[in-house]
Amino acid sequence: MGRILIIDDDVQVCETIESLIARTGHEAVSSYNLKDGLAKVKAADFDLVFLDISLPDGNGLDYLQQVKDSSGKPEVIILTGKGDADGAELAIQGGAWDFLVKPSSVKQITLSMRRALEFHNEKQNKAQCVALNLDNIVGKSAEIKGCYDLVAHASGSDANVLVNGETGTGKELFAQTIHENSRRADNNFVVVDCASLTETLVESTLFGHKRGSFTGAQADRKGLIPLADKGTLFLDEVGEMPLAVQKSFLRVLQERTYRPVGENREFKSDFRLIAATNRDLEAMVARGEFRQDLLYRIQTIHIYLPALRDRGGDIRELTSFHLSRLSAQYGVPPKVANSDFYDVLENYDWPGNVRQLFNIVEQAFVAAGSGNTIYAMHLSDALRIKMAKSNLKKSGSHAVQLEKSAPQPAAELKQNLVSEKKDSLKLNQDSVFDTVVSDILADELPPLKVFKGMAEKKYLEELLLRHPGETAYILKISGLSRSHFYALLKKHGIND
Question: For residue 46, which of 74, 188, 473, 495 is within the disulfide window of CB 3.0 to 4.6 Å?
């Protein structure tokens, strides 16, 4: 028997769904506002939640993730009183099971409810049967926990996996974790550095060659693909693979066969494929830089690893984990980090992500010498200067916000608002973005993808600053859809 919660301010809707639930032998509970509904999902485990979008005390979509992350990990069916394509898009992106427009037929509600409960039960049973080994992956934030579910899913199958994420987010580590939790764990995990593959040596590197097959081939050589037989083939930075090489590899991926250079026979290799990249492969396909048919093949399961700046709640745990590892590596007593050390780490954007964090922590570990406590003073001067600049900018921005929010007489406030708007309209757009770019490039040059993300965030903040509360106008001048706009705000942690 399943436990189902209905969060909807329409009493008639709640009673109708309660009746359907009772007839199918499940238990139903109703809440007529978000506050009560959220209190109920925190107090008890539910298998399924019907969640209305328009509630008296808020938008249900804003709390979708919170409901999904509650202790029962329930499936969620979104309810809405009108057809809303943008709302449906956001709901599905947020992991909702279904999106129903009220009034929906009894048959449609019952069918969606039955399928959601079946899926939930199957997922729960699988989770009980499969105990993932996540010894080398650290983090308890909601952002990284979402990746664990996909790792479990990938580990239980032989499907091709694409791992996306910025440089330093741990793509190879996640690939190894999938391999180590799969049925292929006792066989090879073979890494192919796609950036180093050349058209002249690709066949020899991947497939191997026979002695004398070309100048310099003084002995038989086994390629990487036969080495991965019964194991996992990991294509690192697959976005760097040349187009000609992509064509050669596509057939191997389809048939799981290869022919060594100088050999007149084909051989089979039963490998499982995991690919990783920090590039946007769909954009590359649109530009003709990556084969669409290859992209379809490699992303049966797609895992996107969040940047460290989007999972700041994991910084302390990651730091503690790495300090313990360093103590064992250097053979010295454990060291602990002081609170001021964590204050600095938690206020930095980490363009190099976890890899950069571990490098900075090791530098501080070494700088601390024989001391058993690590302080902010043990960080490099370069990092502390960057942090000081960042904090000054944040403080200045906060002061401006406080000044704007200070109470003023109505006439004066109106006059100031008109004046501010006129001043903003007089701004030279080129000079504004020259300043933005200069700020971003003031320190060490970030990777291009990181730069684009930073510029995107600055653009959104400028939009909201110039046109507060004018969502329709913002969408018009930016060319964004409503759902895409809100998705970008969420991505960059910007409050509208």
Answer: 74
Residue 135 DSSP label = T
- Could you report the per-residue pLDDT of 41-53, keeping only the tens digit for each? 988 899 999 999 8
- Tell me the one-letter amino acid at 146: G
Answer whether 82's CB lies under 8 Å from 73's CB. no
What pLDDT score was predicted for residue 164? Answer: 94
- Residue 256, by phi and psi: left (phi above 0), alpha (psi -120 to 50) or beta? left
Pick from 160, 208, 151, 136: nearest CA to 181? 151
Task: Count how many residues are written for the chain.
Answer: 496
Torsion sign, CA atoms 431, 437, 439, 441: negative
Handedness of CA 350, 355, 358, 363 (dihedral sign): negative
- Tokens 């036969």 label which residue? 226
| Sequence-distant (≥ 6) Cβ neighbours of residue 114 within 8 angstroms | 24
pLDDT of amino acid 406: 52
Q: What is the structure's pLDDT at 394?
A: 60
Q: Which two tokens stand for residue 448?
A: 């291009």
Domain boundaries, position 241: 142-306
Note if the pTM is more than 0.85.
no
Over residues 398-415, the pLDDT tens digits come to 555 545 555 545 555 445
Q: Which residues of 299-331 are buried (b: 16+ CB within 10 A; e: fewer)?
A: bebebebbbbbbbbebbeebbbbbbeebeeeee
- Give the whole-angstrom CA distance, residue 424 versus residue 464: 12
Q: Which residues of the chain have pLDDT under 70?
A: 82-87, 125-131, 212, 214-217, 390-391, 393-446, 449-450, 496
Do 170 and 104 fall into the same domain?
no
Q: For residues 105 and 154, state if they share a domain.
A: no
Indicate the residue among 306, 333, 355 that finishes a domain. 306
Q: What's the pLDDT at 7? A: 93
User: How far is residue 172 from each of residues 161, 175, 235, 276, 376, measured CA to CA in Å?
Assistant: 12, 5, 9, 7, 30
Helix axes 482-492, 85-93, angle to 10 degrees: 30
Please identify which residue in the block is written with the tokens 């379809």: 296
Residues 162 and 210 reside in one and the same domain = yes
Which residue type is seen at 292? Q
- DSSP state letter for 195: G
Three-class DSSP category at 294? helix
Can you give the pLDDT at residue 428?
Answer: 43
Domain termination site, one of 93, 128, 163 = 128
The pLDDT assigned to 431 comes to 41
Average pLDDT, the chain: 83
Distance in angstroms (rounded) separating the CA atoms of residues 202 and 435: 45
Is omega for the bond preceding 103 within 30 degrees of 0, making it cis? yes
Helix 471-478 / helix 448-466 crossing angle, nearest 10 deg:
140
pLDDT score recorded for residue 422:
42
Coil, helix or strand at residue 156: coil
